[in-house]
Amino acid sequence: MKTELKVLFLGDMVGRIGRKTVEKFLNKNKTNYDFVIANVENASHGFGLTKKNHDELASYGINCMTSGNHIWDKKDIFEYIDSSEYLIRPLNYDKSVRGVGYRIFNDKFLVINLLGKTFMPHVECPFKALQALSEEISFEDKITIIDFHAEATAEKECMGYFAQSLGAKAVFGTHTHVQTADEKILNNSCAYITDAGYTGGTGGVIGMDYEISLKRILTSIPERFDVVDSKESVLCGVEVVFDNETNNPTSITRVFEKYKDEGNED
Ligand SMILES: [Fe+2]
Ligand SMILES: [Fe+2]
């Protein structure tokens, strides 16, 4: 039995340039990791995830795909979400919503997805949803990892300590697309970062086109967003080493890489 397990977690992947950047990184580094998780809510042209892109990402070696508020934006999600072996959507949507909010891999990794309650769509309370799940499944005897897809930093940090108190071993924030520099291990048992950051094109606004973003902010009139037209990209995430016996994290390190010539959106 391996004494330690190394997990890679990548934040929101934006558009084709984000997917291709992840492919390039994993082609080189996949063998360094025992388990790879990526947030895919923006992977198909910035919004949602098509079945085609879902299968493409699985072929790169991603073991678990987490998501967020944008996962519903491509309508074919409703055709395949119930048959995917990789994808989870936030647990705290109404019970009638398709898909699952957590998944167990190799009887070792329990991955849970939650949506924040501050400045986010109205969903059930993520804290109460997590508490209820912890009463159904033991978090302690697995490497329990949470993707907390949320806007407010205080809510995210609070979730870190709350999840740790329930036995979770990692809480990674997503959604803001900006990597924070506060990676740490809470009470020696839960790896934490407020936001893992995004993977996608640079030179725009959180991976999207600047002009359109500005127009939306100035006019408050909805306009179709587009992925930034860029040949340069970043890859953002964290890698965490877990003790295979205690399941506790022993280190958390930010991953931040720059790439050139990834090609434009198509
Ligand atoms: Fe996102
Ligand atoms: Fe989001």
Q: Could you name the ranges where pLDDT drops below 50 across 5 or more consecutive residues?
A: none
> Kindly, what is the distance between the CA atoms of the first and last residues, rounded to a whole number of angstroms?
44 Å
CATH fold type? Purple Acid Phosphatase, chain A, domain 2
**Rough outline:** globular
| Average pLDDT number | 96
Largest sheet: 6 strands, mixed
Give the ordered list of helices and strands: EHEHEHEEHEHEEEEHEE
CATH superfamily: Metallo-dependent phosphatases
Ions, cofactors and other ligands present here are: fe (ii) ion
Please give the CATH architecture.
4-Layer Sandwich
* Number of E-type strands: 12
The secondary structure category is alpha/beta
Quaternary structure classification: single chain
> Helicity level, as a percent range?
10-25%
Indicate the proportion of strand residues: 25-35%
Q: Which class in CATH terms? A: Alpha Beta
Number of self-contained structural domains? 1
Number of distinct helices? 6
> What is the rounded Rg?
17 Å
Could you explain how this protein is built, in words?
With 266 residues, the protein is an alpha/beta fold. It has a single domain, classed as Metallo-dependent phosphatases (Purple Acid Phosphatase, chain A, domain 2, 4-Layer Sandwich), CATH 3.60.21.10. Strands 1, 2, 3, 10, 11 and 12 form a 6-stranded mixed beta sheet that branches. It has a 6-stranded mixed beta sheet with strand order 4-5-6-7-9-8, with helices on one face. Bound molecules: fe (ii) ion (2 copies). The site of one fe (ii) ion has 6 residues, from loops.
